[in-house]
């Protein structure tokens, strides 16, 4: 029997927050372990709730979602954070990526789309609303000059192959099937990639790989 994925929601819009609670608790394989209108006492909430994934708004009273993400990842690096917001501006996107989010979706996403994105995160993917994903690639490819890669990250050939698959958007399960290896082996390679690149998320690894032409 598959384990239930525990999700915490930080969202100041009461209607959306309650709708997400209802959808999550009504979807097999998911449970909403907490829903909060702001990030006050965020670390205590996570300590108490032990979520696998956090749905995080950006603009909330008090601490914003990006600052909260930085705080959470510094204390609970294993927790995945999926940004859900109305903001599609470059500044928000890249600040979120630098903070270590696992994905970035817009609130125009349907409730079923939220569930699909959470499934993607749980499977090792980095979901992004199509327009956001396109903008990320455009900015990296057109507006951020590639840096000359003078750093030897000491990635093995298999680690480079795994990283290449991440860049093309494949989930952990898809990489395992493509490379004919166990899912746990893929996760082990990705852990090594994070350590060698000094990042803590798929999006961070992908951003560095594209910018520095590592693969």
Give short descriptive properties of this protein:
single chain, 215 residues, alpha/beta, Rossmann fold, Arc Repressor Mutant, subunit A, 2 domains, five-stranded parallel sheet, 10 helices, 52% helix, 13% strand
Determine Rg (CA atoms, Å): 17 Å
CATH architecture of the largest domain: 3-Layer(aba) Sandwich
Name the structural class.
alpha/beta
Total beta-strand segments: 5
CATH topology of the largest domain: Rossmann fold
Task: Report the sheet-strand fraction.
Answer: 5-15%
Let me know the largest β-sheet.
5 strands, parallel
Q: pLDDT average, as an integer?
A: 85
What string gives the helices and strands in order?
EHEHEHEHEHHHHHH
Description:
The chain starts with a strand and ends with a helix. Strands 2-1-3-4-5 form a 5-stranded parallel sheet, with helices on both faces. Helix 3 links the parallel strand 3 and strand 4. The chain folds into 2 domains: 135 residues, Response regulator (Rossmann fold); 66 residues, Arc Repressor Mutant, subunit A (Orthogonal Bundle), CATH 1.10.10. The chain has 10 helices and 5 strands, in the order βαβαβαβαβαααααα. The chain is of the alpha/beta class and 215 residues long.
